[in-house]
Amino acid sequence: MENNLELKERISIEEFFGKKFKIKLVEEDVEKAAFTHYLNVIDDPEAKVFENSAIKFYKTLLEEKDSSEITWNDALEAIQYSLFEHKEKIPFPENPNPKFKFIDLFAGIGGFRLAFQQLGGKCVFTSEWDEQAKKTYFANFGEIPFGDITKEETKSFIPDGFDVLCAGFPCQAFSIAGRRGGFEDTRGTLFFDVAEIIRRKRPKAFFLENVKGLVNHDGGRTLATILNVLREDLGYFVPEPKIMNAKDFGVPQNRERIFIVGFRGDLGINAFEYPEPLEEVVAFEDVKEKKPVSVKYYLSTQYLKTLEEHKNRHLSKGNGFGYEVIRDDGIANAVVCGGMGRERNLVYDDRLEDFTPITHIKGEVNRLGIRKMTPREWARLQGFPDNYIIDVVSDASAYKQFGNSVAVPAIRATAEQLLKVLGCF
């Protein structure tokens, strides 16, 4: 027992997932996901779903570190010991006394989770396939999402009894074989997996998010099929979806997304009002870096020239494509993946004093003060607080992750309405 006590004293979660062990977060590693989920629900009924895989994983790692046989009970004791230190280092730990529980599908970096946790909820399952997003998610929530949600093995870890299903699922075309465009017509798409989970688990409500283009996707047939499945096949009350803009909820970003909420039919809910826009004036200066930023974010003269030529070519054809510089009193364009997400959100910043390049560029650093927004500015445009950790991945990954994320304040405002209808507060 003395040996085990010594063992527990030198165990930390960070050792297993940090620099010392350098365990790669790969999509197929179910046991790591189960282990971190177990830590977050260890005192809840949901823990049973993750327990065997979690203890098996931790026992294996303890034996690798200690080179001796570790019993099942010793592994469980070690988990309990490590839990306290682990939770102290997480910026956004779960609510110990939640008002409701939810799951986070296609979780990205946890925009839905932030919003629902702020409202008193506890997340009991997450899934996300992107390896870099998993690193960011773990750094902030202490949890590694499960991987491919289309796999039955992944679905088997979803616990029963949660209240709300959240999913920012990708937009995909369906093969509308039937007259109605029903459940079977969505097979092979990621929406089918969302619908299948709703069918099996019967949560009280769901909150789905997608790009604005879903409204007209495939001539409107895709959205019509989705609504038919949710309403007719699954039996949920689904009010008409609504296009919501992030700039209406306290962040200076013109980002329109479609929100779809639904309530289980037996709850007797037959009315829902999406939140009204706030009367809050916001501008880029509200999220702009307070201190001068690195020269690496400033455009080179050659890059700026290329952007100007590209824009002029489109202007000569009557197109409005091209880079854009957002004024401090302006509203940013939608932050999206790809180069144009950054190039349509350039800013003026004349605080740079040292123009010596620290990256390989063509030409010199421009003297006009034109730079890219920083990843932290993108995080603020999406409503992520400043204690949200983003430096565990490269800038390129961070831009991608925030470009793919939901705008937290818009999600929270709608979630609050949904939870009021459910009677959660």
UniProtKB/TrEMBL annotation:
SUPFAM superfamilies given in the database record: S-adenosyl-L-methionine-dependent methyltransferases (SSF53335)
Query: Which reaction is catalysed here?
Result: a 2'-deoxycytidine in DNA + S-adenosyl-L-methionine = a 5-methyl-2'-deoxycytidine in DNA + S-adenosyl-L-homocysteine + H(+)
Record Gene3D superfamilies: 3.90.120.30, Vaccinia Virus protein VP39
A Pfam family that the UniProt record links to this protein: DNA_methylase
CDD domains per record: Cyt_C5_DNA_methylase
Q: Which InterPro entries match?
A: C5-MTase, C5_DNA_meth_AS, C5_MeTfrase, SAM-dependent_MTases_sf
The active site consists of C171
Ordered alphabetically, the record's keywords are: Methyltransferase, Restriction system, S-adenosyl-L-methionine, Transferase
State one molecular function term (GO).
methyltransferase activity
**EC?**
2.1.1.37
Instruction: Enumerate the Gene Ontology biological process terms.
Output: methylation
What sort of enzyme, by top EC class, is this?
A: transferase
Similarity section: Belongs to the class I-like SAM-binding methyltransferase superfamily. C5-methyltransferase family.
Report the protein name in the record: Cytosine-specific methyltransferase
Q: Which organism is it from?
A: Mariniradius sediminis
